[in-house]
Amino acid sequence: MSSIIEAVQEKKAAAAAIAARPTLHLMEPKDMARWDAFVANCPEATFFHRAGWQTVIERVYGHKTWFYYVEQNGKIVGVLPLAEIKSRMFGHSLGSLPFCVLGGVVATSDAARPLLDDAADKLARSLGVGHLEMRNLVPQHAGDPNWYQKELYVTFRKEISADDEANMNAIPRKQRAMVRKGIKLGLTGEIDQHVDRFFTAYSTSVHRLGTPVFPKSYFKVIKEVFGDDCEIRTIVRGDEIIAGVLSFYFRDEVLPYYGGGMPAARECAGNDFMYWNLMQAAAARGCRIFDFGRSKLGTGAFDFKKNWGFEPTPLAYEYRLYASAELPDNNPLNPKYQLFIKMWQKMPIKLANFLGPFIVRNLG
């Protein structure tokens, strides 16, 4: 009898040992709710780790994705979303995560991190990519000679209060005057369930900057996938579109992610009012962090956000080279793109909006 009991106990112990061993998996549709539940509760996870980005990237751009997770004792303990971009113009890469500010490994178990890193390395080798990119808030591979870091992007994050007056007073004087100007000129913010008015403001703005536009379908799918966690806010003066911003809500944060203004926005402080209007709404909704998002060093967007009293925090984008001999440099500050930018600014906006999506899909 004792031998039977011992055998049963040994089997239970073996089963428990197997369950306690972390194992690597690829996310399937049935796993998406579990994945998002993990992201919602993992302290270092972000909106850009949500499972819905797989749907967005695959449906809009047709890029292949691999959303890896590590499971231990029946629970997800780490995730890593990856997508491949293969372009003759911009190279062959694997990244976590294209079209997102962040997306690198996040985990609640130290055992999960090497499994996810190793999965990315093996996949990068099997695909024959030029480089692997991990978009992190803080370095994950410091001191590792196989990884390189590039100082190009910063993020701007700041706590906000539930009190509008306190938030207004926290804005530096000159910037505060611009916000008040928009208020005095009668600007108002309206919430849209469709992307049309936002896209008009956004596409006009990026055309003025000389950069390719994302397709309207991209924003439609984002809104469809993320629902109420994606807000489209249009700033108007009467019936006139002034500016528009597409924002994400995550935990107690608001992230204005895509935005732009019409030419009239400059004369009536449209962009200034837009972010104040969003800040008011987010504070009323219970948000306590305003994430102004990513900007490149040395750009107008960088200066604009600093003028609001936000301090920049460097983003730790890390790269591992495979077929490539040098780090990627696909950004508008690269001197080789200056002629392209000037040409794009002179192009009719309808043509730019038609051609832009064919280019931007490979930039990520």
TrEMBL record:
<dbReference type="InterPro" id="IPR050644">
    <property type="entry name" value="PG_Glycine_Bridge_Synth"/>
</dbReference>
<dbReference type="Pfam" id="PF13480">
    <property type="entry name" value="Acetyltransf_6"/>
</dbReference>
<protein>
    <submittedName>
        <fullName>FemAB family PEP-CTERM system-associated protein</fullName>
    </submittedName>
</protein>
<dbReference type="InterPro" id="IPR038740">
    <property type="entry name" value="BioF2-like_GNAT_dom"/>
</dbReference>
<dbReference type="InterPro" id="IPR017469">
    <property type="entry name" value="PEP-CTERM_FemAB-rel"/>
</dbReference>
<feature type="domain" description="BioF2-like acetyltransferase">
    <location>
        <begin position="175"/>
        <end position="306"/>
    </location>
</feature>
<dbReference type="InterPro" id="IPR016181">
    <property type="entry name" value="Acyl_CoA_acyltransferase"/>
</dbReference>
